[in-house]
From TrEMBL:
Annotated transmembrane regions: 69-88, 94-113, 120-137, 143-165, 296-316, 351-380, 392-413, 425-444
Name of protein: FUSC family protein
InterPro entries: Memb_transporter_dom
GO cellular component: a single term: membrane
Integral membrane bound transporter domain segment(s): 309-437
Primary residence: membrane
Topology class, membrane: Multi-pass membrane protein
Keywords carried by this UniProt record: Membrane, Transmembrane, Transmembrane helix
């Protein structure tokens, strides 16, 4: 029987709606404009400060203590990047190297720290736009302070919710995970179930990031956070049980109860087990990704090359606003997508940018002033925040309109078609360069990178299997191994060019990873107690994986998928044998 999911969906919509976040973003942009209009009678200073208001587009779902630090860092970054862009206005040959450096740094840290949308793009766009902003009459110190003031206003509006619901983001993360697991439990079709399993695992991962990683390390959690962690442990255990053949009706009811408790409960009597490690801390991630060849490093390198080429082409072709081409190149590459996805993104962004240019031209032709211009920009910012997470391609339309309006100082234009053509050419140049760099970096490497990612995932499975055989899954070493397995299971979807001929292999490998991870959870929570003599299935699985690593295949073909299926069948048989006590 399919459960009624309306309660879970309702709780999810209440826990994490976008419109309050969009309202905060609109206020963050409107307040500096309004202050400028009230104090100076005009908006030039306020328009400069609005570049700092883009801080409001970041970290909207993070716990408040962590959000405070991230937003402060983003605000300072915007202030420094824009000030640097203004500083090189009199040095035309310095603009491209500056934007290249900013783009590489922003892309690296965004990828390494998982800053989230809009990532490096807005920082690069702000810096590049600043190289052509009409603010030469302002001292650099004033520019820096204006941008920082815009960021400070964004910080205050984004932190205001802490006064009403100080643990709201953590509760929302738990409800999101409950919603994903409820969907998994209600899904019977096997292909759809694998997708639901992956979504549930991602939601649980994000939940633990909110409940563990984004909490102060040396500060004990209060009663609410302890309760949410206990509910999270139970939720993760239910996810682990999904790998076994059981009646899931009771599980569905309990998931709904957990979602309800997440929204209301402040204390709960419970015995805590070892918490998962979640993801690495910020300093640890930066240290890990600073090595040559890591994903964050490769993203930064690709973005740097593309921005340098786009900027140089812009100067050679005499483009009036070469910064737009550099921003477009960043937009295509800063998320580290494969060629196929980058092509789709490039098309989406080109169309979105062209529509956004048309919208900006309309705004500048109508030429709203004073309060009407403030209201227009606030409305655009509101729409951006509504769309930026789930419909980023549409959000680019309104980001483009805001950026061009700010970059022109809100002045009227007589020939909007000239603006449309010029910015359209810039966008096409930037997107084309981004695609060429993406294609060049993928030539001859797709199969190798796909196989390497798959073998890396398999290599992470074996240590966890070893800890399962000795029932030592909660030691520090075991938790680190489980964390690595979890990270690889998620990243394999990013690292692989998922084409139809290898999609079945990817899904089979993820199924095996979730089986092993789920078994570790069952052992941790004393659902099963394996002994060495009962671990024939685990040993068989380990033997199959060891053989794959010893003599890896040349391609990810059907025979590889069959071997993974054999490994999964062995561990499934072990799970069925050792969990009869629970089933009975």
């Amino acid at each position: 029987m399919r459960p009624a999911k309306s309660n879970i969906v309702a709780l999810l919509s209440l826990a994490n709606p976008r419109w309050p976040i969009a309202c905060r973003a609109a206020l963050s942009l409107g307040i500096p404009l309004l202050l400028s209009w009230l104090i100076n009678g005009e908006l030039s200073a306020g328009l400069v400060a609005t570049l700092g208001s883009f801080t409001s587009l970041y970290a909207s779902d993070r716990p408040y203590r962590n959000r405070a630090l991230v937003l402060a860092g983003i605000a300072i970054t915007f202030a420094a990047a824009v000030t640097a862009g203004v500083a090189v206005q009199g040095l035309p040959h310095a603009a491209v190297p500056l934007v290249v450096g900013i783009a590489m740094l922003a892309s690296f840290f965004s990828a390494s720290l998982k800053i989230g949308p809009p990532g490096a793009y807005m920082i690069v766009l702000a810096c590049a736009a600043a190289t052509a902003m009409p603010v030469t009459s302002l001292p650099l110190s004033h520019v820096f302070l204006l941008i920082l003031a815009g960021g400070a206003i964004s910080w205050l509006t984004h932190m205001a919710g802490a006064l009403i619901a100080p643990r709201g983001p953590e509760r929302a993360a738990l409800v999101n995970a409950a919603n994903a697991i409820a969907h998994l439990l209600a899904t019977a079709d096997e292909p759809a179930r694998e997708i639901a399993r992956h979504s549930a695992a991602l939601a649980l991962h994000e939940m633990w990031i909110a409940l563990v990683n984004r909490q102060p390390r040396d500060v004990p959690g209060d009663g609410t956070i302890t309760t949410l962690r206990a509910l999270g442990l139970e939720l993760h255990l239910i996810f682990a049980r999904c790998n076994c053949s059981r009646d899931e009706t009771a599980e569905q009811d309990r998931v709904r109860q957990i979602a309800s408790l997440a929204c209301t409960q402040t204390t709960l009597d419970t015995t805590m087990s070892r918490l998962p490690l979640g993801q690495l801390r910020a300093v640890e991630r930066i240290a890990r990704d600073a090595r040559f060849g890591t994903r964050a490093w490769n993203i930064a390198l690709r973005v740097g090359i593309a921005v340098a080429i786009a900027g140089s082409l812009g100067e050679m072709l005499g483009l009036t606003r070469a910064y737009w081409a550099m921003a477009a190149a960043t937009l295509v590459l800063h998320q580290g997508l494969n060629l196929q996805a980058s092509l789709r993104r490039s098309i989406d962004r080109t169309v979105g940018t062209l529509v956004g240019i048309g919208l900006a031209a309309l705004v500048l032709v109508v030429h709203p002033t004073g309060l009407s211009l403030i209201a227009t920009l606030m409305a655009l910012q509101f729409i951006v925040e509504l769309l930026v997470v789930r419909k980023y391609a549409f959000a680019v339309i309104f980001v483009t309109a805001i950026a061009l309006t700010i970059a022109t100082g809100g002045h009227a234009i007589k020939n909007p078609e000239t603006l449309l053509i010029a910015r359209g050419v810039d966008t096409l140049v930037g997107c084309a360069v981004g695609l060429l760099v993406c294609a060049a970096s993928n030539i001859g490497g797709r199969t190798r990178s796909s196989l390497a990612a798959m073998l890396s995932l398999i290599a992470c499975m074996r240590p966890v299997l070893g800890y399962l055989q000795t029932a030592t899954v909660t030691s520090d070493e075991a938790l680190r191994s489980r964390q690595s397995l979890q990270d690889e299971a998620f990243s394999v979807m990013i690292a692989l060019d998922v084409h139809p001929e290898i999609e079945s292999v990817v899904m089979r490998a993820q199924e095996l990873a979730y089986l092993i991870s789920g078994a570790a959870w069952l052992v941790q929570m004393r659902e099963i107690e394996p002994a060495r003599i009962q671990c024939t299935g685990l040993q068989r699985t380990d033997t199959i994986l060891a053989a794959i690593l010893t003599d890896p295949p040349a391609t990810l073909d059907e025979s590889f998928s069959i071997e993974l299926a054999r490994a999964a069948e062995s561990i499934e048989a072990w799970l069925d044998d050792d969990t009869r006590r629970y089933s009975s």
